[in-house]
Specification:
Elements lengths: L1 E5 L4 H12 L3 E6 L9 H4 L3 E4 L17 E4 L11 H16 L6 E7 L8 H13 L5 E7 L2 E2 L4 H12 L2 E5 L5 E2 L2 E2 H11 L9 E4 L5 E2 H11 L5 E5 L4 H11 L4 H10 L22 H8 L4 E2 L6 H7 L4 H4 L2 E2 L6 E9 L3 H9 L11 H13 L20 E2 L2 E7 L4 E6 L5 E12 L2 E12 L1 H10 L1 H17 L1 E2 L5 E2 L2
Parallel strand pairs: 1-2, 1-4, 2-3, 4-5, 5-6, 6-11, 7-10, 8-13
Antiparallel strand pairs: 9-12, 14-15, 16-21, 17-18, 18-19, 19-20, 20-21, 22-23
Helix pairs in contact: 1-6, 3-4, 5-7, 7-10, 8-9
């Protein structure tokens, strides 16, 4: 099926795209700027792109006529409060006018649960978009979701900031409002499963998880999953404006998004319009389990949701492993890159021989000290070494790292730290050739666990400055002489 995917670079779209591709669909991503698309290189090669701004109808005139279905995953939550309703109205109207000129038979829209009589501006705007999209020639299916639980989602990251930064929270009364959070995996499965199902045409379905919780309960369960003890005091004197400022200053969200979310939290978002379970049977994931999954070893596109099972069985599905992503939200990142003139394959081989007897190329004594420290607190240390001196495959242990991806053809090695840490860490190497120029990139990512995790990152920051810079330089220039000892290039 030929599908138009709007919002392909957004939170939901980026996770839905690889699923659609793996299902065999031909996907056209509607994006404003192809250069800013954040999709894996291998995935980009499998999709088409159409550059257009939905606020500019003249840019939509050349949409392919043979589109069979379309996902509308567009919203203006981050826009100023006095404009986002008009923007959502304009974009949905322009979309309908453009899609009516194609052969599209089915539109799927992800909206928000809006069953209360008095709705927030945000939910009212979403509901108005439903009305406009229903005027299209194609049949419309609306999926209304509550809070979506997945790493990187706005609501999820706000909850995370609150829980991990504040041992004691003085919170507004909206924490008593009930909602029905749903795991991102369930959302993606519903979206990908409903397409083309004629029994869903013209229908509205609420989608939520198995738990109905207050926002306070969500915060406390989140803290329990993360192994944190938290106390929450609710005060009725915190107005919506004060609550918005409170969220803005305590969390990483903008005031505009905080204001929209606080305004919406007066509404209960509980599933009432049922029936999707009869079309797309789905095992719903409990809230606590969804939180655990969000903090899994990798932030996954949902197509690779079974990667841990693959490791356990020693049968790695390399086609699915292509789309593994390192987390970006709530992380500290040390990224370095450099061009080099040396033979591409020689530098790549140096990466493939890292660790074990070869060591880590620069200041190996510090790596050994870190290994002893890890072993002293019950970690694996450096004693595991590596399986082979010059070969790596996904699943291998590599000193105190685990190999997640070892794709030599694509020049990508991704490692996950199995040492004792107040958080989670990844180390990624990429060697590419762009426009005839060889380039190496080295990225260290750390997702802290609470305040101690943040202090840990800052405490080792200066060491990273020397170690990571020196390591990348040595990887580029390291050579072996005929007797097998290292020499400088």
């Amino acid at each position: 099926m030929k599908i138009l995917l709007t919002g392909a670079n957004g939170y939901i779209g980026r996770r839905l795209l690889p699923v659609l591709v793996m299902q065999g669909h031909e996907v056209i991503c509607l994006v404003r700027d192809k250069r800013r698309i954040e999709i894996e290189d291998k995935l980009i090669k499998k999709v088409q792109f159409y550059e257009a701004d939905l606020l500019k109808p003249e840019q939509l005139q050349d949409l392919p006529k043979d589109i069979e279905a379309a996902y509308y995953l567009v919203h203006s939550l981050g826009s100023s409060s006095d404009k986002f309703q008009q923007m959502e109205k304009d974009t949905s109207q322009n979309f309908v006018e453009a899609i009516n000129k194609t052969d599209c038979q089915h539109i799927i829209y992800l909206s928000g649960i809006s069953n209360d009589e008095s709705l927030s501006k945000h939910l009212s705007s979403r509901k108005n978009a439903e009305t406009i999209l229903a005027q299209a020639n194609a049949e419309l299916t609306v999926l209304r979701a509550a809070i979506i639980i997945g790493s990187g989602g706005a609501s999820f990251e706000i909850i995370r900031d609150l829980v991990e930064k504040l041992p004691v929270m003085v919170a507004p009364k909206w924490l008593r409002t009930r909602c029905q959070p749903i795991a991102i995996r369930n959302v993606i499965n519903y979206l990908s499963g409903i397409i083309g199902k004629k029994e869903s045409y013209g229908k509205i379905y609420d989608i939520g998880g198995p738990d109905i919780l207050t926002y306070k309960e969500m915060l406390l369960i989140f803290a329990k999953v993360r192994g944190l003890k938290r106390y929450i005091i609710t005060l009725p004197v915190l107005t919506p404006r004060l609550s918005s400022y409170w969220l803005h200053f305590v969390t990483a969200t903008s005031y505009k998004i905080a204001s929209s979310l606080v305004d919406s939290m007066k509404n209960e978002v509980i599933v009432k319009n049922k029936g999707i379970e009869n079309i797309v049977p789905e095992e719903l994931i409990p809230y606590s389990e969804a939180v655990k999954m969000a903090f899994d070893r990798i932030a996954q596109n949902e197509v690779v949701s079974s990667w841990k099972d693959a490791f356990a069985s020693s049968k790695i599905n390399t086609e699915l492993m292509e789309f593994i992503q390192v987390p970006t939200y709530g992380c500290f990142v040390d990224k370095r890159s450099s061009t080099f003139k040396r033979n591409h394959s020689e530098v790549l081989q140096n990466i493939w021989e890292i660790g074990g007897d070869r060591g880590w190329y620069y200041w190996n004594f510090l790596w050994k000290i870190r290994g002893y420290m890890d072993k002293a607190v019950g970690g694996v240390g450096l004693r595991r070494g590596r399986r082979s001196p010059d070969q790596l495959v996904a699943g291998d242990s590599l000193d105190f790292w685990r190999v997640l991806i070892a794709d030599k053809e694509e020049g990508r090695l991704l490692l996950y730290a199995e040492m004792k840490l107040p958080g989670e860490a990844w180390l990624e190497f990429k060697v590419t050739n762009e426009d005839g120029e060889n380039k190496i990139s080295q990225t260290a990512t750390f997702r802290p666990h609470g305040l101690f995790g943040r202090l840990y990152w800052y405490s080792v920051y200066l060491f990273h400055e020397f170690i990571f810079k020196g390591m990348m330089n040595r990887i580029i220039h390291h050579r072996e002489n005929k007797k097998g000892s290292a020499v400088a290039a």
